């Protein structure tokens, strides 16, 4: 199951699990659409391809909450 990280690792933008617009690599490094575009859809951590992260909503989100651990280092 995806961790569904709550923020962009590059700029700190909030990325709620039930909203579209987050991008992840195979290691779940997470970025907003603007940062993913600026990074040419390549993860700066592992070099992997950044892809659209699926959303999680409703009962799925209630039963399997998103992570609250923020990754933005500022």
UniProtKB/TrEMBL annotation:
A Pfam family assignment: DUF1272
Family matches, as InterPro entries: DUF1272 (IPR010696)
Source organism superkingdom: Bacteria
Name used for this protein in its record: DUF1272 domain-containing protein
